[in-house]
Amino acid sequence: MQETLANVADLVAKRLDADVCSVYLREAQSESLLLSATIGLDPAAVRHVRLGVGDGLVGWVAKNGEALALERAREDARFRYFPETGEERFTSFLAAPLVVQGGTTGVLVIQTVDPRSFHQADVELMQTCAQLLAPVVVNAQLLALMSSSEDYRSTHFPPRTDISGLGGSLARAEKNVELTGIPTSRGVAIGPVHRFGAPVDLDRVEYRPKGSKAEERTDLLAALAEALGDIEETRDTVRVRFGPEFAAVFHAQIQILEDKGFVQNLEQALDESGDAFLALRSVLDSYRETFESIESEYFRERGADIIDVGQRIMEKLVGDGSEQSAMAPGSVVVVDQVLAGLFARLEIDKVAAIVAEHGGATSHGAIFARTLEIPAVTGVGGVMSTVRQGEPCIVDGSTGHIYLAPDETLTSFYQDAQHKYEVAVGHLDAMRGRPSETRDGKSITLSANVGLINDVRYAEKHGAEGIGLFRTELLALAHRGFPSQEEQEQLYRRVISQMNPRPVTIRTLDLGGDKGIPNVGESNEENPQLGLRSIRLTLENRRAFAVQLRAIFSASVTGHAKLLLPMISSVEELREVRALMAEVREGMTARGEEFDPDMEMGIMIEVPAAAIAADTLAAECDFFSIGTNDLTQYTLAVDRGNERVAHLYDGLHPAVITLIDSSVRAAQRADIPVSICGEMASNPLAVPILVGLGIGEFSVVPAAVPLVKEIVRALDTRETAQDAREALSMASAREVREIASRRLLESGLLDHPDIGDWLKDEIQ
Ligand code: PEP
Ligand code: MG
After folding, report:
1. Given a cut of 70, is residue 169 above it in pLDDT?
2. What b/e readout covers 126-154, taking b as 16+ CB neighbours within 10 angstroms?
3. 364 catalytic, yes or no?
4. Is 249 found in the same domain as 105?
5. How far is the CA of 225 from the centre of ligand 1 (A)?
6. Which of 80, 137, 672, 740 sees the fewest Cβ atoms within 10 Å?
7. Of the given ranges (22-26, 39-43, 211-215), which has the lowest mean pLDDT?
8. Does 170 reside within a domain?
C-alpha cells in the first residue's frame, strides 16, 4: 500500500510539475484524514499528520468533495499549518478529492514553492488524476487490510477426504427432473450437460506435499504466476469481445495477484505448515473472513474478486477438480455462477445454453448471455450437485424451467418449440433488407436497444436503423461506480462511429431503483423505485453528471448522436439539466474542444406526470422516447421486479395506453418526433395499437427488430388508428388484447406458414 501510494504521489508530482504531491486517506469509520504518502513534505510526517474532515484546506476538499486551487494558500482563511510537515516553504496549493462510489475516500494534493496560478485545465487534469487513481488507492487499502489480518495463522484446517470413486453414472432412474430458476435469456436448448469449471472442492482435494519447503514454495509461486497469466489473457479476450469497460473487472484481480502483502502472507503460511495447499487455503480463508466482516457493502462485494483469484490459484496448484472432458457441441453449460470471465474461457460456439446455480438476471454474465443470444437460466438452487456430466437436459430460457433426463414426450414437445423458433427466426432474418413500412406506405423506424459495444453487432445483424436507446449504466455497473470521462467517451465514440450515419441515442445514467450500485445513491431506501434514482441521482451527483455530459458531447463529433434524459418528471428538472448542459458546453468552447452544437436532446416519458404534462415538456426538448417499462410500473403502481404482483403488470392496460396517447399528441402539437423504447414495443400484440397511436419509431432488443418489422408490414394505419381509438375507450387490458389479436388475425400473420405458430405461442 505504501509503495502504491508513493508511486501515485511521485507520478502526479511529475505529471503536474509540482514540488509536493501528497495523498491523504480517510481512516476507516472515522472522520479524520491521515497523511498517507508524500513526495516533497517531510517523510517523517507520513502516518502522523492527521486532520479532521472539514479542517484546513485538505479537510475542506474532503468535506465538500470539490477541487480547490489557491495561488497563495496561506492567505486563505481555511488554511491550517502543520509544523510536522515542513510545508512553510510552499506557496500554491491544488487539491482534488479521491471519490469512490460517490463518497470521498481521500484527497490528492500538490503544492509548489513558487507562486503558481492554476488554470482550469490544471484543475481538470488534477481531477482526472484523482478520478483514475481513486480505485487504485482503494484496492491498495483493501489489500493492506487483508495483509494485516492475523487470523490466518489460527485457521482451522478441516480433514481431507478421499476423492476416488467420484463421478456419477449417466443413467438416472427418475425422468423429467424439473428445476426452476430465473429466466435470464430467451430461447430453448436441448443438449448434454457440461459442468464447467466447478470450483475446486477444498474438502475433497487430495494434495500431497513434495517433502521440502523449497519445492512447495516453487509450486505455489508457479501456480500464482500461471493464474496471473490466465487472468491477463482473460482480460485481453474480454476486452476484444465485450469492450474495454468489462476488461476493467479484471484489473482488481491482477492487482491482488501482484500485491506483495498477499505473496508475503502466502510465504509466511507456507513457512509454518510446509504445505502449499494448506498455506493457500489458510490465507484465502482469512481473506474471505475479513471481507465478510467489513461493514461497507462495496468492500464486501469486492470479496468476490479475492475468492475468484484464490480459486484460480488453487486450480493451478491442485489441478481443476471438475471434470475435464472436452465439451460436446450443443452443450448445456452448468456453472456455479455466470462470471464475466466465463465467456472468455468457454468455447462459445459449442454452448447451447447456460444454467447457473447462483446469480440473477442482471449480473454481467446474464447481460453477456442475452447479448450473445444464448438461452440462460440463473439462480437454480442445487443444480451443480444435481446434474451429472453428459446427461441430457432441456433449458427453457423464457420460463426458467430446466428438465434433466427428459423423456421422449417432453423432448419432442421442446424440439417442436425449438423448431418453430428456428423457422421463424430464419424467415424473419431473411427480411433484413425490406423496408419497414405499413401496407399503406407509412415508414416506421426500427431501432435497437443496446448497452454494450458488442450489442452493436447484433443491431447490425438484425437490420436496426439506429440505436434508439443506449443504456449507459452498464458501464457504471461493471465499474460499481461512476466511470471516468475517458472510459465513457471511448465507448460512446466507438458506438457512434460504428453506427454512423445512423443515429445513436445515448441515455444518461439511469441508476438506482432496481439498478442500484453500493455506495452510489441511497442503499436503504424504503421505496427505491420512488426514491433517489435516475435523473434525480445524477442531479445530486452533478460532477459525475457533468463528466458524462462532457463525454457525450465530445463523442458527438464522431457521427449522429442524440442525448436522452431518463425519468424526467417536471419541467424544473429538465431546465436544471439544460443549465448544466450549457455550462458543460461553455467550458468545452472555452477550451477549444469540439462537439456537435446541434445535438438533439430528448426526454424519456416514463413517469405519469411527464405524460400528463407532456405539452410543457415538449416545448423544451427535441424529442420524446416513451419508456413503457417504467410508465407501466408507475401508472399501475406495480413494482416491475416483484414477481408477486407480476400478473398486474400490463402495458396494454387502458390507463397506460391513454398516457401514451397524450404523450404522442403533445409531441405532434409541438412537432417533435416520438419513439417508444420499453419492452412493450416488441410485444406483438402491442405493435398494432402503438402504430395506431401514431408512434413513428420503435426501439427494441436487436433480436426483435425483424419480428416488429414483419408485423408493421402487415398493418394498415387507417385500420390501426381505428383500433387505437377503440382501445382508448376500453375498460380493461383484456379487451385491448382482443382488439389487437383480431387485427393480427385479420392481417394473416397468424396463418403464416413460417411464423404463424410461433407468433401464436408468443402472444398467449
Ligand atoms: C423503460 O422504462 O421503459 C426503459 C426503456 O428504461 P429501463 O428499462 O432501462 O428502465
Ligand atoms: Mg426506465
Report:
1. no
2. bbebbbebbbbbbbbbbbebbbebeebee
3. yes
4. no
5. 44
6. 80
7. 211-215
8. no
